[in-house]
Amino acid sequence: MIWVFLLGAGAGAGMLFWWDKATAPKRQRIPEEWPLKLRPLVNSSERRVWIWLSKVMFDQQLLVKLPVTRFTSPTVTEEATHWYPLLNGVYCTFTVCAMDGRVIACVDVQGPSGRSMANQALKNSLLSQCGIRYWVVDPSNLPHLSQIRTALLGEPAMKGSDRDLLETRFKDVRENLQAAVTRQRNHKSGPMERPDAEIHTGADFPESRLPSGWEQNSFLTPLDSRSAALGK
Predict the structure, then answer these.
(1) Less Cβ around it within 10 Å: N or C end of the chain?
(2) 229 vs 232: CA distance, rounded Å
């Protein structure tokens, strides 16, 4: 009886191995029709703050809904796989970035029900320890140019004669944005263009098809060989 049991177990294991090998390519194939649809990157309140913040931070880069794992790294490399699942879902509505790629500040947009104190405390603690300033904005009560720039960029951002220059630049940017919006409204959008890279639906997706220069999340795989402290 024992040999019959062993023979059956061996046959079952063999069938399971064969089934796994037979179905693996199907799981890795690109579907002919993706079960996805386009959705807006921001809602109406976030869009209002986005336009306003792009005027205020005209001399900086503005990134949208970027997870903190894109611009931080663990102090102990071996702990990356532990912290990544916990932090990958933590993001701010906008990230203010200098021209050299250094993150300066993060801004959250307050929704109708506000943001929980626990959520704000977590982000404030995490970001402040990395030397990044954090601010929560109410779309219905936006702060003045000087207030938000001082809070995010520091006193030198609104110092001395630079204030008049910034106010003038702010006005110019506002007029340019209004003109751009007007052009966009008058422009008839054409059909969506196909991307340069051909998508082979129904085919396997080996790593060799990934775009050149593609990298994994830098929280887990550093983008270069230089070591960096957390948040730098």
Answers:
(1) N
(2) 6
Closest by alpha carbon to 45, among 116, 141, 181, 185?
A: 141
Q: Cβ distance 64 to 211 under 8 Å?
A: no
In eight-state DSSP terms, residue 106 is E
User: In this predicted model, what pLDDT tens digit does every residue of 151-174 receive, in sequence order?
Assistant: 999 877 766 445 566 666 666 655
- pTM given for the model: 0.62
187 alpha carbon, distance to own chain's centre? 29
- Going by pLDDT thresholds of 50, 70 and 90, the confidence category of residue 220 is confident
Give the Cα separation of 83 and 68 in Å (integer): 11
**Residues 6+ away with beta carbon under 8 Å from 230:** 72, 73, 74, 75, 129, 130
d(CA 79, CA 125): 19
Give the three-class secondary structure for 77: helix
- Cα-only R_g, the chain: 25
Cβ 134 vs Cβ 96: under 8 Å: no
- Helix 162-186 / helix 145-153 crossing angle, nearest 10 deg: 110
The answer to whether the beta carbons of residues 150 and 158 sit under 8 Å apart is yes
What are the tens digits of pLDDT across the range 115-160? Answer: 788 889 999 999 999 999 999 999 999 998 888 999 999 877 766 4
Return the pLDDT at 225: 44
The Cα-based distances of 205 to 29, 140, 163 in angstroms read 6, 46, 54
